[in-house]
Predict the 3D structure of the following.
Amino acid sequence: MSGLAIITEACIGVKDRACVDVCPVQCIYEFDPHQHVLISEDEAGGGVVENTHAANEDTITIFGDTLLYVNLDECTSCTACYQPDVCPVGAIYSEEQLPDGSPQSPKYNSADPNKGHDHTFFVQLSRDVFADSSDADVIATT
C-alpha cells in the first residue's frame, strides 16, 4: 500500500540517511541548526543541496537536528524509503500504515525499537516543521 512517508521516533539520534539516497524527489530533510533551515541533499552527505525550507520555530525545537523530516507537500508516495531494507531502525511508515499502539493498529516494522508506541504524532509534526508549508498547523509544545 502506498502513502505519504512518515519518519517516526526510531530515527531520533540515528539519522542513517539511506532514505535520502533512495528518494527520487529529495523530499527528506535534515535540520541545520547553524543556518536554521531544513536542507535536502541530492545525495546523503554529498554536500549538494537540492532544496531548503524555513523551519517552524515552535515545532523544530521538539526534536531539532536529531531527526530527519519528510516534506509531505513534496512526497510522491513512491514507497522507496519505507521498504524494509532501507531504514535500519524501521523508522519510516506509510501514513496509512502508521501504528498507533492499539491492538487493532497496523503492524510495526520488525526493526522498530518502539513497538507499542503511538506514532501518529509524527504526521502533524511532519506538516508543522516546515514553516513555509501550505498546511502547517503548529503542534503545541506545552
